[in-house]
Design goal:
By secondary structure, this protein is an alpha+beta fold. It has 4 domains: 48 residues; 266 residues, Transferase(Phosphotransferase), domain 1; 137 residues, Rossmann fold (3-Layer(aba) Sandwich), CATH 3.40.50.2300; 230 residues, Phosphatase 2c, domain 1, CATH 3.60.40. It contains 24 helices and 26 strands. A 6-stranded antiparallel beta sheet has the order 1-2-3-4-6-5, with helices on one face.
Length: 761
């Protein structure tokens, strides 16, 4: 946050501490450069106070901050068929108790509303009706609703776990946990939105994390059916101030995108450990939500994936139309970040685990037919075995299946795994990727068979699912077939019919796998390109040190350049950029190895010229045919501004001075492999405060226009000279824009890659 904004914040707090009559004279004595903003801010605060008063009136509370006093005297008493055990807490519409359902012998969370007028009771019951319409593993389960002696109550599932608030209070969450929780919350909210229900009160206190990691959304007390928006008075503000969307805070109509904003605020807080819009007063928080941007998440926590920062930024856009249009888009974006992180982790793990000279992991024996990637073929050592997963909440079915099919099990033809419900089945599938045929009931707790079928379809794995359910479930069976079930048998089970159905499913699955292998072999060229792309995805930088940035605009699916910026021992920063001719798996591997080796050598503290010599020896010991690597590397000391640069046949780096002058750091040695050791020397320059260092790929200067004229080094220097904003992101954006304008409608034939750093003023 800028100093200017801090000045306003301090003056606002002082103004609010004064009587209202004294504020005009106080504003007049404020510095002239903030007086106007201060006057507008105080006006917004008054407006925000009115919103909070409206919230209190709508909740039928004495004030916006007062919550109904817990009815502790009810502990130990009976209400309807519930025995109240202890007081858990208070929600927006009433006290919550732990209670025993004496009819069913289970523990429930009993939410009770007492002493509230008819409109309040109507709203309370509307909350229950909204939530009870939802059946999803990430949404709190509503058992029943009732009234007793004028007290309205809701009986809900009672969960053991921690609220997300309790977890955040311990400090920022690790990135993987934050992404997992955000995805689960989005999954539950997406199901609610599909039913026309908007939560409107998403906050850490309303998100419960269970011991098994499952997240449950609590308290749909402010939920509003999108088709009944007129039920809420215009101007009334719902929700908790810190997590309100701008349209919600200003009393405007809201839709499902208000939940996207609130979840974005929670996501930000999980990663940063602080709310995006802090403030000592509710009015100050609402003013920030409606008028200011949060401090960039990358400034609150270093090392976050850039794509993840962009996701949270998009969720927190002021205008609803600038956010994700729905939460499925957001979940897909987070899944892509997680997938990329997993790919990087796998690459690192294989490199670390593979000793020199060892056969690559997963290598096929000589003469063996390669299994297609992702074709679900049985694991090595289990040839000819059919792996089945049986999903049913009746424990005796496991014994029955093992007894009826004992001959096939003993002969090693079939191998069973058992799960009690859909969620358990998904977990078992992760543990047993060799599974081919699934037998599932439809009526199960937590996740039923229909939901399981939908989740299986999203896995994109070759599976055949047979529904095993009662004859009376024919309507559900029809739905199951529409969701991808291969076949069905009815209960009571005719095991001869079941065996025939399983054999038929296995035959169909085997035919599909053979066809898939043939298809994969037919498109081997495309697979090679995909391998190259995935190698690049796994090695591309996902975060940068402070005051650095890099970007690449490839000319095709496969990039011929690499770039990175990273921390080096001694509080220094390393920048590297390199390129190789060609777009094949071989050239991609050369790029990936060059980037990985050079970065590792620099981070180990090896001097630049020695690092390049070692890289030459490692990469070209056996004279790779027709390949060379051009690169430039720099190490910057932000404290002194000293820059050490080494250049191996690459475009020279630039220094953009704070005064507007542009200098090129002189030419270096030849490309790697074209010279012997000692051909490369280190050159030194100095960055003054505010100066920027820019590394550009050769393609940036060679971009041709429609007439074939290149952009040129001179135009590149002029573009840098004309750029008034020396921040790395602004510099890179300026060069790419100028190159694009020069190119016009001509095709892009070379990659445009840049990495830059600015020394703080």
């Amino acid at each position: 946050m800028s100093g200017h904004e801090w000045d306003i914040s301090e003056w606002i707090e002082q103004a609010l501490e004064r009587p209202e009559a004294d504020r005009p004279s106080f504003i007049e004595n404020a510095p002239s450069h903030i007086a106007h903003d201060l006057r507008n801010a105080l006006s917004s605060y008054i407006q925000a106070s009115a919103y909070l008063d409206g919230l209190a009136r709508d909740l039928h509370l004495p004030s916006a901050t007062t919550v109904t006093t817990p009815h502790l005297h009810l502990v130990g008493s009976d209400l309807a068929h519930f025995r109240i055990l202890d007081h858990i807490g208070d929600g927006g519409m009433g006290a919550v108790y732990r209670a025993e359902d004496t009819r069913l012998g289970r523990t429930v969370a009993l939410k009770l509303l007492t002493g509230v007028d008819a409109p309040g009771r109507e709203r309370f019951l509307r909350e229950a009706q909204s939530a009870s319409a939802l059946d999803h593993p990430n949404i709190c389960t509503i058992y029943e609703i009732g009234e007793d002696d004028g007290n309205a109550w809701i009986a809900m599932a009672c969960y053991e776990g921690n609220t997300l608030r309790a977890l955040i209070d311990r400090g920022p969450l690790d990135v993987e946990s934050a992404m997992d929780i955000a995805q689960q919350a989005a999954c539950g909210l997406s199901a609610a939105h599909a039913r026309g229900i908007v939560h409107r009160d998403i906050k850490p206190e309303n998100l419960m994390v269970l011991p098994d990691g499952r997240l449950v959304i609590l308290d749909f007390g402010l939920a509003k059916g999108a088709a009944h928006a007129t039920m809420t008075q215009i101007g009334t503000v719902m929700g908790t101030a810190a997590y309100m969307s701008p349209e919600q805070a200003s009393g405007q109509p809201v839709d499902h995108r208000t939940d996207i904003w609130s979840l974005g605020s929670v996501f930000y807080e999980m990663l940063a450990g602080e709310r995006p819009f802090p403030g000592a007063y509710p009015q100050a928080i609402l003013y920030g939500i409606m008028n200011t941007d949060p401090e960039p998440l990358s400034g609150r926590r270093s090392g976050l994936p850039l794509q993840l920062v962009e996701i949270v930024d998009r969720m927190l856009q002021k205008a609803p139309g600038d956010r994700f249009s729905n939460l499925q888009e957001m979940m897909d974006a987070v899944a892509a970040v997680r997938s990329r992180a997993a790919a990087r982790s796998e690459v690192r793990g294989r490199v670390a685990a593979e000793p020199a000279g060892a056969e690559p992991a997963g290598a096929e024996p000589a003469g063996a037919e390669p299994a297609a990637a992702g074709d679900g073929a049985p694991a090595a050592g289990d040839p000819g075995v059919l792996h089945l997963l049986c999903v049913d909440d009746e424990p005796e079915l496991e014994l029955l299946m093992q007894q009826r099919f004992r001959r096939k099990i003993r002969a090693g033809e079939w191998k069973f795994t058992f799960a009690l419900d859909g969620q358990d089945a998904l977990n078992k599938l992760e543990e047993h990727p060799e599974t081919g045929v699934i037998l599932t009931d439809l009526n199960m707790p937590r996740m039923d068979g229909l939901t399981l079928l939908s989740r299986l379809a999203a896995l994109e794995r070759p599976l055949r699912t047979v529904v095993v359910s009662a004859y009376g479930d024919l309507e559900k069976i029809r739905t199951a077939m529409n969701r991808g079930a291969f076949d069905f048998v009815t209960k009571p089970i005719d095991f001869k019919d079941l065996e025939t159905t399983i054999d038929k499913a296995a035959t169909d699955l085997d035919a599909y796998r053979r066809a898939l292998r043939g298809q994969n072999q037919a498109v081997s060229i495309h697979q090679e390109l995909d391998v190259a792309r995935r190698i690049q995805d796994a090695t591309m930088p996902i975060s940068f040190p402070r005051n650095t940035f890099g970007f690449s605009s490839p000319a095709g699916e496969i990039n011929s350049t690499f770039y990175d910026a990273f921390d080096v021992a001694g509080d220094r920063v390393g920048l590297i950029l390199g390129e190789v001719r060609g777009r094949s798996v071989t050239s991609t591997l050369l790029l990936a190895m060059g980037q990985t080796f050079l970065k590792g050598l620099i981070q180990q503290g090896i001097e630049l010229s020695r690092a390049v010599q070692m890289l030459n020896q490692m990469l070209f010991a056996d004279d790779l045919p027709s390949l060379s690597l051009q690169l430039v590397a720099a190490i910057v000391d932000p404290a002194t501004g000293v820059v050490n640069v080494i250049n191996a046949g690459h475009q020279e780096p630039w220094i953009l001075g704070a005064s507007g002058h542009v200098d090129m750091i002189g030419a270096g040695g030849p490309p790697i492999w074209q010279a012997t050791d000692g051909a490369w020397s280190v050159q030194t320059a100095t960055l003054e405060a505010g100066d920027a260092l820019i590394l550009c790929s050769g393609g940036c200067a060679r971009v041709p226009d429609t007439g074939g004229q290149p952009f040129s080094v001179e135009r590149l220097a002029a573009t840098l000279r004309e750029t008034t904003d020396a921040r790395p992101t602004a510099l890179i954006r300026s060069v790419l824009r100028a190159a694009s304008e020069h190119r016009g409608s001509a095709p892009q034939r070379e990659d445009l890659t840049l990495v830059a750093m600015q020394r703080e003023a």
